[in-house]
Amino acid sequence: MSGRVEGKVALVTGGASGIGRGCAEKLAAEGAVVVVTDIQDHLGAEVVAGIKAAGGKAEYLHHNVTDEAEWVSVIAAIKAGHGRLDFLVNNAGIGIGGSVLEMALADWQRQIAINLDGVFLGVKHSIPLMRASGEGGSIVNMSSVAGLKGSANMAGYCATKGGVRMFTKSVAMECANARDGIRVNSVHPGIIETPIWITVGAATNPGANAPPDLDALSAMAVPMGVKGYPEDIANGVLWLCSSESRYVTGQELVIDGGLTVR
Fold first, then answer.
1. Residue 153: inside a domain
2. Residues of the chain whose pLDDT is less than 70?
């Protein structure tokens, strides 16, 4: 099957690398016009160039998701350039680990600003443009298995991702009550090979001088015995954006190789 989101317009935050990049590439490959945003301008431009080289349609915008004025500008640019917005993938996020007793308030607040405030601002400013088309839309908020279960030395990260999970459900009910056709769901990745492990790894393996060996970690912790890749998450995001999930809202899609079941 191809062209599952043909003619649609998607916004993917944090799309310059990792899961965001995978989502942008997957949505573009299935026919969407993808607006990739990030603060890593060089990498973002590379993602867009790759999508175009593969025959897809994409553009890049610099975007700090914690800045409300930038959200207003990004949505205005999408409205001016495309006239509509069908999908929002609120993916931008960071991971700051460490003991709750030693975490600086500034780090706590920065993680909340990006992981939670950024999701709130995305929803707040994207829904009006989605509603304007009269055709509904799909919002996918990137949470984590850390939003479902606690982890030592990851209290701040778990708090933000748990917040994304419940925020998603509340917004899903608000949109359902408005009968606007906008579906809102969260995705919860497990151990996925992405750059976030450079920072998260220090918390999961205190004293180590390098990121954790994800293959070894997965063999020990994941029932399926292997790590995941951005494409595994992107496939789930694509499904949530497509009409195939037309009757799904307020749900959490866990993609973790069985990690949270154990």
1. yes
2. 1, 198-210
C-alpha 154: how far from its chain's center? 19
In contact, 171 and 139? CB cutoff 8 Å: yes
Asked whether residue 40 is domain-assigned, the answer is yes
Count of structural domains, the chain: 1
Name the nearest CA neighbour of 99 among 55, 157, 170, 173: 157
**Mean pLDDT over all residues of the chain?**
95
Q: Are strands 33-38 and 9-13 parallel, antiparallel or unpaired?
A: parallel
Inside any domain, residue 222: no
- pLDDT (tens digit, 9 = 90+) per residue, 108-141? 999 999 999 999 999 999 999 999 999 999 999 9
Residues 166, 168, 173, 179, Cα dihedral to 10°? 180
pLDDT at 162: 98
Catalytic residues: 157
Contact 10, 86 (CB under 8 A): yes
Q: What is the CATH number of the domain that holds 71?
A: 3.40.50.720
Burial 103-118 (b: 16+ CB within 10 A, else e): beeeebeebbbbbbbb
What range does the domain containing 16 cover?
9-194+230-254
200 lies in a domain? no
